[in-house]
Amino acid sequence: MAPSFEDGNSVFEFVVRRGNGVKGLVDSGLSKVPEAYVQPPKERIDKENAVKHGLPPIDLSKLDGFGPDHDEVVDQIVKAAETLGFFQVVNHGVPLHLLESLKDTAHYFFSLPPQRKAVYRSDVSPSPLVKYGTSFMPEKEKALEWKDYILMQYTNDDEALQHWPQEIKGVLLEYLRSSIGMVKKLLQVLLGNFGIKPDDPMIDVLIGKKMLSMNFYPACPNPDLTVGVGRHSDMGTLTVLLQDGIGGLYVKMEQDIDYGKKGDWIEIPPTPNALVINVGDMLQILSNGKYKSAEHRVRTTSTSSRVSIPIFTMPRETTKIVPLPQVVEKDGTALYREFVLIDYMKNFFGNAHEGKKSLDFAQINPT
């Protein structure tokens, strides 16, 4: 007989304090979503009325040459960052067998016994580099997110090999190593648009810190009532995301473009062999608002469990962030103030997801 979760406190105790996660709820035999996960109507995802993102993925192999193909790809990357803040890439240099291995490994890790995962809960984890959790900020959320995750900070290979979970560290390190060259190429294009040289040390500064996550969204009995991840933008510079074939990623339009209008939610459908790239808050601030750190969220599904594996790149905590002077000079005014990244991080990780509200911390005149 499935346990009863009639009140939010019992759910919180079972899922968060015991470290069972949402998967533990599902494994207990739930037939309906507990009240603690039921989102307010305005936060639920209307799958039927979302716009389908119809643009083909960007072929990064064309960046390696010169001529019209190279210039066309540069234009595609810049336009995507200026409008939606999301785009998909193929021929990215990450081995395709690795992408499949990552998805298989994520499913394997979350199928482990609860006690094997719970040792990494933030209050007991043997390392500050590794955190296993559920939802984003359970203590502050009005409704919990239907998601479990394992989050790892990367400092160097030795520390990762020592502290990351045995079952996943090898494949995640390979994912990071094979992706970082692509991230540099994309930043060279995006910053080159402002006149910054490809060998400028700023590019390495902007990705001086990396975090990797494996996310697990168990099959949900009432997906229309829940969200896998609530509305938010990513905090860092660029995010690389591997999503599986199930889908569920939605991005909000900040302006009218060819295939949608401002305020529409656009579904980013899974594309075989592709990775999803999205702009983070730091790149929006550096570009003085030219590039958009898109607001996005994730829907759950009743048919099967879904996994996604993001790499978050960002500057180190002590880095000072301020809009690029050449962009401010051209614009005539700075939209964001100078700050140290650690202060932005404390604000970001100290609040529940609420769209792009995290940017208010740095905005000179928040709307």
UniProtKB/TrEMBL annotation:
InterPro entries the record matches: DIOX_N (IPR026992), IPNS-like_FE2OG_OXY (IPR044861), IPNS-like_sf (IPR027443), Oxoglu/Fe-dep_dioxygenase_dom (IPR005123)
One MF annotation (Gene Ontology) recorded for this entry: metal ion binding
Cofactors, names only: L-ascorbate
Keywords carried by this UniProt record: Dioxygenase, Iron, Metal-binding, Oxidoreductase
A Pfam cross-reference name: DIOX_N
GO biological process, any: coumarin biosynthetic process
Domain Fe2OG dioxygenase intervals: 202-315
Stated family: Belongs to the iron/ascorbate-dependent oxidoreductase family.
Listed PANTHER family: FERULOYL COA ORTHO-HYDROXYLASE 2-LIKE (PTHR10209:SF753), OXIDOREDUCTASE, 2OG-FE II OXYGENASE FAMILY PROTEIN (PTHR10209)
Protein name, entry field: Fe2OG dioxygenase domain-containing protein
Organism of derivation: Gossypium aridum
